[in-house]
Amino acid sequence: MFRGIIDLKSLWAIGAIFFILLILPPILPRFYTYILALIFVTSLLAMSLNLVLGHGMIFQFHHGVFYGVGAYTVALMLAKTSLPIWVGFVAGPVAAAVVGLLIGWFCVRLTRLYFGMLQISLGSLIWAIVFRWYSFTGGDDGIHGIPMPPFISSLNSAYYFILIVLVICMIALYLILKSPFGSTLEAIRDNPQRCEAVGVNVRRHQLMAIVIATFFAGIAGVLFVVLERSVFPDLLFWVLSLEICIMCLLGGWFTFAGPMLGAAIMVALRTFVGIFTEYWTLILGVILILLIFFLPEGVMGYFLEIFKPQAKEGAERRGE
Amino acid sequence: MEIDLAALASQLVVGISRAMILFIVCAGLSFVLGVLRVPNIAHGSLYMIGAFSAYSIAMRLFGGSSAGFWLALILAPLVVALVSLVTERVLFCHLYEREHLMLLLFTFALMLIFGDLVKIIWGAEYRSVSAPDLLRGSVSMFGASIPRYNLFLLIIGPLVAIGLWLFTNKTKMGKISRAAAVDREMVGLIGINVSWVFAAAFVIGCCLAGLGGSLVAPTVSVTLGMDHTIIIEAFLIVTIGGLGNMWGALVGSLIFGVTHSFGVLLWPQFAIVFPYAAVVIVLLLRPRGLLKSVW
Question: Which end of chain A, N or C, is more open, meaning fewer C-beta atoms within 10 Å of its C-beta?
């Protein structure tokens, strides 16, 4: 339950990391720049999920749908209409949030596992439509070669664009979690009955959290299109959604930056293990099982426990 | 729109017979869900392992003879049962006290591992299993020709349903597992080894997945990726039926199979959308499923 106040030391660390990421692209080979940018996109996706999963304990099992809706919206607008680029960039997250509102509105009536199952079924309906509607979404081929405006057409400029958007989104997510709304969400996670009793509208808060999370997932979808210039129905498939859950778990789902670390580990694993063997999912599965057995709090949670014993104590005191 | 009656009848039979395979798989998933309270994502992988084992037994060991098919129908579920027993005793049984989400992700990890193991053992090619002589060809009914194998499935499905009903209601083992689903602490308190009840329930559920896999093998091409398709369908069916309810799984499977086959008739391109839409409609009317969930 780490929600430490930003101290000077971590601010320095974050600043240093940001500076290193800023000067990296001209030095690194193209391939690594691309991998880093992909990690940024995936990080934003994982962090948006963790807003509801880790901080709200809402079983959002089909988060990938909103990522896909965001990506498809911007891809279709850029490929099929001549509207200005920013309209597409705004429409992607908004469409994701609208779909999030619709699906969430049905799902928040249920709790836990039922919530997750209903969301998987509603999400699969959207996937099935996208997968089959050849004339509109390109069906299982997807859409490729989406035109990009010149200011983000090269890999390096796309990298900087993604990095800047990621930083803005991270600050926004952090502020949301620090706000009264974020605290209420965590209170609902820890004790929904008591929250209901003191007059918190639990369902409305959960729905709002879902809409916010899906909005950020939509932004991640837009960034994916900026980087890849293509979309395909696998973005909405449930396997990806569960992979995002794994990223949160892997990094540490009770920490703020944990999902980011999880996303980085997943993308790096897939890329570099994928070079050596085609059986990378086998290795991922084994790592995941080891993790569930030995590091249930995730990599980030583990390190926090080692390096910051006072943070853990604080959490325990708060938990009482 | 004019619909050919013969085509309608044959699609109906095909839809219901497909529903029978779905039912066998979903009944297993639902049983595990009811007793262990774990949505087993690896269930689809066990179905796939069942289908591939049926291929190995029927086509490799027995060269596609009729006897091979019947033997595969018995042995393939046992292979799956062995795999699930080992998994449960070595890994899964240490995790029951954990958070639901952890268990779900654990079964997802199993799915990833099983998927690649199948790829290593059987390769990525398409495999096919031939039906025995008795079940080849088709018979003419209502002016439509209906494959004999589908009629065979129509007999097997209800047999499995009756068998499962007898097991859960008439045997001691079944009664204990139902009791463990409702209140596991109480079952433990009266001196029953809950850990082994869970193991047995898990193995029986997975065995049904294997049976479904070996039954489906002659009707489709056995290939990687069949785990992804079946598990999402099974999840939806179990949800609309009511978590853990066997009859719910039957009703859900029938809805799913029949809407899909009518979808094929009405609008082939979007046939896949029909069952999903049916699921959504059911869930909007009854968010907790059609029949009562066991917990």
Answer: C
